[in-house]
Amino acid sequence: MASALTVLFLSCWLAGHSGVWGEPTLPKPSLSIRPSRWVSLGGPVSIWCQGQNQSMRFVLNKEGSNFTPVDTDGFEAVFPISNVSREDGGNYSCSYRGRSEPIAESYLSDPVELVVRDPSLPRPSISLSPTGVTAPGADVTIRCQGQRRDVRFFLHKAGDLNPQRHVDPAGDGAEFRIPTVGRQHGGSYSCSYRNRSEPFVSSQPSDPVQVVVVEPSLPRPSISLSPTGVTAPGADVTIRCQGQRGNVRFFLHKAGDSNPQRLMDPAGAGAEFRIHTLGRQHGGNYSCSYRPRSEPFVFSEPSDPVQLVVAEPTLPKPIISPSGEVFLGEAVYIRCRGQGQGVRIVLNKGGRHVAHVDSEKLEFEFPINNVRREQGGNYSCSHHSRSEPFVRWSDPVELVVRG
Fold first, then answer.
1. Rounded to an integer, what distance in angstroms lies between the CA atom of residue 346 and that of residue 194?
2. End-of-domain residue from the set 251, 279, 311
3. pLDDT tens-place string over residues 221-276
4. Given 191, 214, 237, which residue is the final one in a domain?
């Protein structure tokens, strides 16, 4: 009858030769999928397992099933898949063990998901609410819309490896809400979906949308027009944006246009936007902002607006009165009469803006109390719709000041 010592020795020997010897003793390897863990159907992909010891036997595992081990003299092994099929999608992990000492085995790596993209699945669409640049602290909703039901939608942010997911089995769309938006939420987003019956087969991603967040700590830029005042059609106009820091990209915004015009000026703290051969389509309110080149989805607050007003000879000419003489210290009223209601009436002297008023009446009187010598000269007025900045000048009148 065998002794207890003999039985114990035999049990240890069998355990060692079967590859089981208590807890793993080698450090956990890392696993990566190249070029990406999202691969199109039929495309190539390689799964890399990297350990911390040389001359090891590497084993690739997919959801409990092992692939043929690979022996290598280096620190890593490659498991290539040349023609990816739907069945190749899934969760992979790997481990390694010594070739000469099979009892020395590592822990399993963290799992990595391989997702197969099927081009035959219709691509979803994506939209943002609200659109445009978002104020900090606001709530943003990203909606993904597909053409199939009983699917799971995934939201992807460029640069993030792990998508956020949402299950919506009752419909063909899903909403992802971002409450209290901050600068960390800025980025480029897209979405995809997977049939719930094939959890590792995905549609191609939607076109991207950008979440751009205003950062109040960035100093606001200033904006100026050259030439100033009302500009004749056909002229050239320069809109200058001036900031307080370099290495930024400036954006020019026209009220009502969803896509800003941009210009990069990394050498300085300002940028110029030129409008050649001015037409009435260029009239409007303009502002500018900038974003640091190191944070392309963070904007400064916009500058105060400037209004580009285009002279329009086809509009009815306003009437200005009176002309004549006035004595020093007296009061006089310059009356401007337009051809419509609900307009902005502008008083000019020598071609320069003096005053303006938004009026619901046909005419307005600009008072000059206690007339001074320098207030003599040629005056004209213009009027334009507050929603359409196109103007027509009146004929000038001369105000003569006598002592």
1. 61
2. 311
3. 999 998 887 777 888 999 999 998 888 999 999 888 877 777 767 667 889 999 99
4. 214
